[in-house]
Amino acid sequence: MAAAEPYRSPPPSPSPPRVDPILRNVLRYTVSAREYKTLHDYLITRSPPAVRKRAPPPARVDAIARVSDDHNAAAIRASLRVFIVSQTGLQIWDQLIARIFGRGNPPKKKPKTSVFRSPNLRLSLSLSLILLLHRLLFRFLTRLRSNLATKEADPFRRRNPRIARALTSRLAPAAGASLAGFALGVYPADQLRLTIAIYFATRAA
Length: 205
Known about the structure:
By secondary structure, the chain is mainly α. It has ten helices and no strands. 64% of the residues lie in helices and 0% in strands.
């Protein structure tokens, strides 16, 4: 009788392709896992083979988002979108105003200004920084407030009663996050900046 054939273990499954760290961080800070899946289904699958090979699958991007702390990445994504949308909207608005009020009149040459001194760029940067700082400060102060309310923080509360009462107040996260409004100082001082400041002040109240 022939000897029984020894048991053969199944071949190891191929490891998933390694994602380039730069590409991984770019995807993490620009699109969410759900948005990447939509982008992958409708755009990347129709792209050339070289692009499809380098692009990570949606399941891998979703796993990366689940492992890492996605709150900071989401805050950066939101601020980038505010910057892009506001900058694009301001550019379109300037072109519309120039066409409406420039009919029948010779075009006026605008004085050249550097990119960093452009009011539109500085306004977009200011709005995006306000959103980013507000979300980061609010989350930090909320977690700090919850940590100071635990038993492990009793020594700190006994040594610093006033600071502890201020940081554990119900309004502490919102009041601290309102400091993000100082980012409005990036925009040049004019009537629009005053209007935005009044709007944010009334919304915070």
